[in-house]
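Question (not urgent): is this output format expected?
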Amino acid sequence: MTEILLINPNTTPSITDLVLKTATGFASQGTTLRAVTGAFGPRYIASRIGYAIAGHAAVDAFANDHGHKDAVVLACFGDPGLDALKEIASVPVVGMADASILQACALGRRFSIVTGGERWKPMLEEFVASHGLADRLASVRTVAPTGADIARDPQAALSLLAEGCTACAAEDGADVVILGGAGLAGLGATLAPKVDVPLLDGVACAISMAEALARQRPAKAKRGPFAKPAPVESIGLSPALANLLAK
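Got this back:
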């Protein structure tokens, strides 16, 4: 039995429910999933300030979860707080964006990302560059509705998303297209037949990678940037997070 915790640092419970439902459809038999929602911050992350706050919300959610887990999935495309979670967690932590771009590189030479919210374009370009994969990125295309808007009314955005995915392959030279965003979870199955190259769902990528790493049970780093940090006092944090940092 593999137990995976999904952390949604957005503060909209319906997005958490959507991600959990989608992830359940992709999970293997024998995998148990549960999900938590950020306790503070924006309802949906669509800017740099929202992204920064979401990183704090993600580690706070982790600290306040006391259930058993064999792996953690950060269920927000763009992965706010991913490195911090990897630093403090003793189990593998997988981000939706991180897993997606790595699996896209396994399928083709160049990939594109399609998501909701225009501010995500430079943010995701910087994210890919930080992974040393800027030359593998064909494009980032965004549609005007944010991920939250799309989650509320997915049918209204399907044509825009299909156009964006098609243009990535036809105009930008993408061998693989990633559908990114927690609010877009589950739409890949509907859009895939309309796209002439492989279309990856960010939730599916994260779940498959988390399951694989959980089965391997890799040891926690004892040195390097992802070893647990030295104890430090703090103020103004939730008791659980303050206690985690103090250990």
